[in-house]
Amino acid sequence: MSNSKHNVLLRMTNSIVNSVRNNREKLLAIIAAGVITGAVMFTAVISSQLKERKRRLERMHQLQLKLTKMKGDLLIKDRIDEVYSRIEPLIASNGTEQQEISQFTRELGDLYSKLNVKIRSVKILPMVNEEFYRRLAVKIEMSGHIKNILNFISCVETYPDPIRIEQFDLKTRDTVDNIQASFLVSKVVAKAEIEAN
Questions:
Q1: Strands 163-172, 178-190: parallel, antiparallel or unpaired by DSSP?
Q2: Half-sphere exposure (CA, 13 Å, Cβ side) for 87?
Q3: pLDDT by residue (tens digit) across 135-150?
C-alpha cells in the first residue's frame, strides 16, 4: 500500500510538474506572441505615426523660421519707410536734371560767396541714377585762407539739405595759411515725377 501511495503521489507530482511546465510554455508562448504582435504593431502603426509626427515637426520648424524671417523683413521695411518719410521732404525733386543741377550749383555758390575764397574751377559731373533717387556731384577747386576753407567745409556739413563732401584734397601754397583745396560735393534728390510717370 505504501508503494501504491508512493506511485499515486509520484504520478500526481509528475502531473503537477507537467501541468506547470505546460502552463509555463503556454505563458511563454503568449508572451512571445504579445511581443511579436507589439513589434508588428509598432512597425506598422506606431513607427509610421512617429515618422509622420517628425515630418510635421520639421515642417512646423520650417514655417516658424519663414515666419520669423518675414517678421524681420517687415521690421526692416518699416524702418526704411520711416527713415525715407523723414528724408523725403529734404530730397524732394525740383524738376528736370538741368533744374536740379542749377539749384545745386546755386546753393553751393551761396555757401562760398559769403567766404573770402577764390574759386579756381567748378566742374559739374554726370548725374548718377539710382533706384529711388539721383545723385548730383560737383567738383570745386578753390584757394584761400585755411580758416575760410574750413568754414566752407563746416557750411556744407551743416547745410539743411542732404549735401555732403565725398572727397577733398588740400595743398599748401607759398604761405602756410593760404591753401589750395579741391572738393567733390554731392547731393541726393528724389527722382523727378516726370521720369517716374
A1: antiparallel
A2: 15
A3: 889 999 998 888 888 8
